[in-house]
Amino acid sequence: xxxxxxxxxxxxxxxxxxxxxxxxxxxxxxxxxxxxxxxxxxxxxxxxxxxxxxxxxxxxxxxxxxxxxxxxxxxxxxxxxxxxxxxxxxxxxxxxxxxxx
Length: 101
Fold this sequence. Notes:
- There is one protein chain.
- This protein is an alpha+beta fold and 101 residues long.
- It has one domain.
- The protein has helices at 68-72, 77-90; strands at residues 17-19, 26-35, 41-51, 57-67, 95-98.
- It has a 5-stranded mixed β-sheet.
- A hairpin with a 5-residue loop joins β2 (26-35) and β3.
- The radius of gyration is 14 Å and the shape is globular.
- The chain starts with 16 loop residues before the first strand and ends with a strand.
- The relative contact order is 0.21.
- Mean pLDDT is 88; it is low at 1-8.
């Protein structure tokens, strides 16, 4: 069977957005998007990258469950960014948060 590369994930409005928090700014980079069958949601894996200096970066990995309609709607980007900011400020390390309401 020939090798078929997978298409890159569909771009979401929050991808490559900078979120500012009390712990500094972080770039949101969406790595993977998986659609859930049961509730029409998405599971997103993202890297939150913080620049320390020209050569050093601090990275945290965040996975989130979110409604597909919220993730794809540019008008909901502020809502998602604020939830990510709250998560950054209230936790350390990598993690998961459920944003399905």
